């Protein structure tokens, strides 16, 4: 059985040709090599080198073997001879797996077949050390570019006899057996052979023809040019590839004759071409064609070497950059450590936490200190990369960052506090009074205890903003969080530490944020608290707000009790009824009802206008909004209880004014520069408040330096400013002399906003009057209602659908709630009873099908307070008598006609005044509420307090008996 293992690559050998004549080709290549007498090559991981021998022939020695077995290698090396063809017509066939053997090159192979090895030994001993080396064909359908695995290689060694014969390429090389070390045989290629027939099967011997290159003309230009191109390409490759340089230097050092066919073989042999391409070169006997084939291969090699170079460069750059950074980092660390600037991560972290807690140690409760110390000790024991480490680190971070025992110095100066509160808000006397009481108590006790104040009222009445002012007045830090829609208890009480991404609750975040343990916390929209999908947020708030419990508030994340008793909680709500009862029970509700026109005028003038003007960068003297304009704005555009909408409108006006001022400035600048293209220089100054001044500097000298007012021009460009012509803006022209130069200054003096041009700034009034009847007709009565947006007037309308005996019924529409529907039924009964009593013959209610409607139909309404209004409306229809003009009423009516108290007296009074109602009827029980109202709210109202419906009857229908 034939067993061969071939080495991976062919190596240039050092055969000295018989006819030695230095060719020009060789000189070119030799110029590239160094003056090395002994060079090593490193191909396929093994070193081979060549050395001159004294007798003019060369020896090829495997360096690896040489080191181990020098004496043996010398003994077995033989002097190459130049075999005559007739002596080798039959040769042993050696299959080559990876590449063919080129003449002039050597190749080590491994022979695993003992029989073949013996035959080779024997032929060496016979002084006929030659065999035929033939490349093995691939399996049919195998891809030559795919490297075969070891398994398939093994199956190749099993080939023998005919099978092996059929797999050999026909053309091969006569190979001299240079040396045999164990199973390693070194072959040196000589001339080309072609197999003609098989002689013996084991070991395989074949008959061969010795091939000669076709004759060629040495001076043929094309051959010359091709070979020069091969050489030039080789030179280029050599410049970039040190591997190739070694090949060439070795080769050129030892080979004198560098003929064209030898050049072609050389190029192909050292290229990285695959075995079939090399075999093609080997089989080609036409020298020109062989050169062309080689040229293709070396050109390709050139491209590969370019790519190799760029890859090597990129990788080298990357590696060197990374290494540099790594080295620098390591050096930095070492330096820092040496200087004591940085210890390892854990120690640094522990140090940081200790440093943080140290100043607080005195004031910090002992149980907290104990937890911190335990956690710090634990941190030291944990592996820095473990998840528990990061949990502990985050925990310590929170624990040490909280303001344990840190309080801001409270202000107990009542006058100062009052000034601050008045500075920020107009009115709101109840709230301000409550805060001043709180301060007074704090002053007398020496400490202030946290309390819960709930500010309730319609949107935009200043609940949130007064919260901020209170904090300022008390000299406490302010923190606001909204609980509107909050459904997760963890938001308040935090997550348990063990969860990934666990966070403490809002209160702990607040303390960390403000850095003091006695801030003012504003809990906004408490009436809109969510239902809760994980626990009940209302109960969690209870623990937070209850003065009994919050001294030991337990956050799930921190897991240590925190004292929140010094925190002042202020809650805001639109509808107090929506606040869960247990929560409401712990609060002190201060209602803010909304503002009447007077109050709004003050707020607009003294607060909103001022802040908006500053925010828009406009100077006070640049604008004037008249009282009439402001009044029109409030009455026609912003009639709701709060002032947020009013604020928006004022902002709108000031934004428009700002635009107008800027445009005017640009316009003046453009006109002036057009007027004076001559030696004058215009300059537009725009100061930080947006006043535009255009200066014109004349080169003429004018005596005196007093500013001289030249004149005022009223100048409005409708298109430029986008405003109507009745807007008045004055442009003032002032001339003054500075440094002998006359400077002309034009200033836009003032933008005037009056009732007449208000629509230019804020558009047409969007508010439709609540009052839809000037004089209410029969069956229609005005009632008063309370909504979350403040008070409002509403009408109760009744009409008759059909009449007929026993047809008495009542239809209700207007999105009425259950209570209101019941209230309507009661009103129907009461009205019927009253009519029956007053006009026993009148069977109106018994025989009429009635329809009661409460506009507007799209607004849901509920509550019992319209009871008396409904009764009056039904009676008006029954008696065909309209009620008195400008009358409004509110009050719950019982079946016996008693009038029960209602809520929202202030809102309802304000709404009545807004609708220009003159007479109001309130339940007697609400007299106290009304009396407490500010005089400006009560002003101009004729109020009647009643406790029985009949009193209303007489007031409404003006019966003499009243
Ligand atoms: N009495 C007042 N004096 C001066 N400014 C006021 C007054 N009342 C309200 N404002 C201003 O009105 C604006 C709206 O107030 P804020 O946001 O506090 O209303 P709110 O009652 O909290 O409304 P919501 O219920 O919608 O939260 C603020 O800019 C505030 O300064």
From TrEMBL:
GO cellular component terms attached to this protein's record: mitochondrial matrix
Keyword Protease among UniProt keywords: yes
Principal subcellular localisation of the protein: mitochondrion
Residue ranges occupied by any Lon proteolytic domain in the UniProt entry: 775-959
Keyword rRNA processing: no
Signal peptide range: none
Catalytic-site annotation from UniProt: 865, 908
Assigned EC number: 3.4.21.53
Annotated ranges, domain Lon N-terminal: 91-302
Gene3D superfamilies noted in UniProt: 1.10.8.60, 1.20.5.5270, 1.20.58.1480, 3.30.230.10, LON domain-like (2.30.130.40), P-loop containing nucleotide triphosphate hydrolases (3.40.50.300)
Domain of life: Eukaryota
Enzyme class: hydrolase
Database matches in PANTHER family: LON PROTEASE, LON PROTEASE HOMOLOG, MITOCHONDRIAL
Function: ATP-dependent serine protease that mediates the selective degradation of misfolded, unassembled or oxidatively damaged polypeptides as well as certain short-lived regulatory proteins in the mitochondrial matrix. May also have a chaperone function in the assembly of inner membrane protein complexes. Participates in the regulation of mitochondrial gene expression and in the maintenance of the integrity of the mitochondrial genome. Binds to mitochondrial DNA in a site-specific manner.
Annotated protein name in UniProt: Lon protease homolog, mitochondrial
């Amino acid at each position: 059985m034939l067993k061969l293992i071939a080495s991976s690559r062919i190596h240039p050998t050092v055969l000295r040709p018989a006819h030695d004549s230095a060719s020009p080709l060789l000189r070119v290549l030799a110029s590239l090599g160094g003056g090395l007498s002994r060079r090593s090559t490193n191909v396929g991981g093994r070193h081979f080198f060549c050395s001159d021998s004294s007798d003019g022939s060369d020896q090829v020695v495997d360096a690896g073997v040489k080191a181990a077995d020098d004496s043996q290698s010398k003994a077995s090396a033989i002097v190459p001879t130049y075999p005559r063809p007739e002596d080798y017509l039959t040769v042993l066939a050696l299959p080559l797996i990876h590449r063919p053997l080129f003449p002039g090159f050597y190749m080590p192979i491994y022979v695993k077949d003992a029989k073949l090895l013996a035959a080779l030994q024997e032929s060496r001993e016979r002084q006929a050390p030659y065999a035929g080396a033939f490349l093995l064909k691939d399996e049919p359908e195998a891809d030559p570019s795919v490297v075969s695995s070891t398994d398939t290689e093994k199956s190749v060694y099993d080939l023998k006899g005919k099978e092996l014969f059929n797999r050999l390429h026909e053309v091969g090389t006569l190979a001299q057996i240079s040396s045999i070390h164990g199973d390693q045989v070194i072959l040196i290629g000589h001339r080309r052979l072609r197999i003609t027939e098989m002689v013996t099967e084991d070991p395989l011997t074949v008959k061969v023809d010795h091939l000669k290159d076709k004759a060629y003309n040495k001076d043929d230009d094309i051959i010359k040019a091709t070979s020069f191109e091969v050489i030039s390409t080789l030179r280029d490759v050599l410049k970039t590839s040190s591997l190739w340089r070694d090949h060439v230097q070795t080769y050129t050092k030892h080979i004198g004759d560098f003929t064209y066919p030898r050049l072609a073989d050389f190029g192909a042999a050292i290229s990285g071409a695959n075995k079939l391409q090399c075999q093609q070169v080997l089989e080609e006997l036409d020298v020109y064609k062989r050169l062309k084939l080689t040229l293709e291969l070396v050109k390709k090699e050139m491209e590969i070497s370019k790519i190799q170079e760029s890859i090597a460069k990129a990788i080298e750059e990357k590696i060197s950059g990374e290494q540099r950074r790594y080295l620098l980092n390591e050096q930095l660390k070492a330096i820092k450590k040496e200087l004591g600037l940085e210890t390892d991560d854990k120690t640094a972290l522990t140090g940081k936490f200790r440093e943080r807690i140290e100043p607080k140690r005195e004031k910090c409760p002992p149980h907290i200190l104990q937890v911190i110390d335990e956690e710090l000790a634990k941190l030291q024991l944990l592996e820095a990369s473990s998840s528990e480490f990061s949990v502990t680190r985050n925990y310590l971070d929170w624990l040490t960052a909280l303001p344990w025992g840190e309080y801001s110095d409270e202000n107990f100066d009542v006058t100062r506090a009052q000034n601050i509160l008045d500075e920020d808000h107009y009115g709101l006397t109840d709230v301000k009074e409550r805060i001043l009481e709180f301060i007074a108590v704090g002053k007398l006790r020496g400490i202030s205890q946290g309390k819960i104040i709930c500010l309730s009222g319609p949107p935009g009445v200043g609940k949130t903003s007064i919260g901020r002012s209170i904090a300022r007045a008390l000299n406490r830090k302010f923190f606001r969080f909204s609980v509107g829609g909050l459904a997760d208890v963890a938001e308040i009480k935090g997550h348990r530490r063990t969860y990934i991404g666990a966070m403490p609750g809002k209160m702990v975040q607040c303390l960390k944020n403000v850095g003091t343990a006695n801030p003012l916390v504003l809990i906004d929209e408490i009436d809109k608290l969510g239902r809760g999908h994980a626990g009940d947020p209302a109960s969690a708030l209870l623990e937070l707000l209850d003065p009994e419990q919050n001294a030991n508030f337990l956050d799930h994340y921190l897991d240590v009790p925190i004292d929140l008793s010094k925190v002042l909680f202020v809650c805001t709500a639109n509808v107090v009824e929506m606040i869960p009862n247990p929560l409401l029970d712990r609060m002190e509700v201060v209602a803010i009802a909304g503002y009447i026109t007077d109050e709004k005028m003050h707020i607009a003038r003294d607060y909103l206008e001022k802040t908006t003007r500053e925010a828009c960068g406009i100077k006070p003297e640049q604008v004037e909004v008249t009282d009439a304009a402001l009044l029109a704005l409030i009455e026609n555009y912003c009639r709701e209880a709060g002032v947020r909408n009013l604020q928006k409108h004022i902002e709108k006006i000031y934004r428009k004014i700002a635009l107008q001022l800027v445009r005017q400035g640009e316009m003046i600048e453009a006109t002036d520069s057009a007027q004076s293209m001559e030696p004058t220089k215009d300059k537009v100054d725009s100061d930080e408040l947006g006043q535009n001044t255009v200066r014109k500097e004349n080169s003429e000298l004018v005596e005196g330096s007093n500013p001289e007012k030249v004149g005022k021009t009223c100048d409005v460009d409708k298109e430029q400013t986008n405003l109507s012509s009745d807007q008045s803006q004055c442009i003032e022209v002032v001339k003054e002399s500075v440094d002998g130069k006359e400077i002309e200054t034009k200033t836009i003096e003032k933008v005037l906003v009056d009732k007449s041009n208000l629509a230019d700034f804020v558009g047409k009034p969007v508010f439709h009057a609540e009052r839809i009847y000037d004089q209410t007709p029969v069956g229609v009565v005005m009632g008063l209602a309370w909504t979350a947006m403040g008070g409002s007037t509403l009408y109760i309308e009744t009409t008759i659908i059909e009449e007929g005996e026993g047809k008495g019924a009542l239809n209700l529409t207007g999105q009425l709630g259950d209570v209101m529907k019941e209230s309507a039924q009661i009103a129907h009964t009461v009205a019927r009873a009253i009519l029956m009593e007053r006009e026993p013959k009148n069977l109106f209610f018994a025989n009429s099908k009635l329809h009661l409607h409460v506009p507007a139909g799209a607004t849901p309404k509920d509550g019992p307070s319209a009871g008396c209004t409904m009764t009056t409306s039904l009676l008006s229809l029954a008696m065909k008598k309209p009620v008195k003009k400008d009358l409004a009423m509110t009050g719950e009516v019982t079946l016996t006609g008693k009038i029960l108290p209602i809520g929202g007296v202030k809102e309802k009074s304000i709404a009545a005044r807004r609708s220009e109602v003159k007479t109001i009827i309130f339940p007697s029980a609400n007299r106290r509420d009304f009396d407490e109202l500010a005089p400006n709210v009560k002003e101009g109202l004729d109020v009647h307090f009643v406790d029985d419906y009949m009193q209303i009857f007489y007031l409404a229908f003006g019966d003499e008996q009243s």
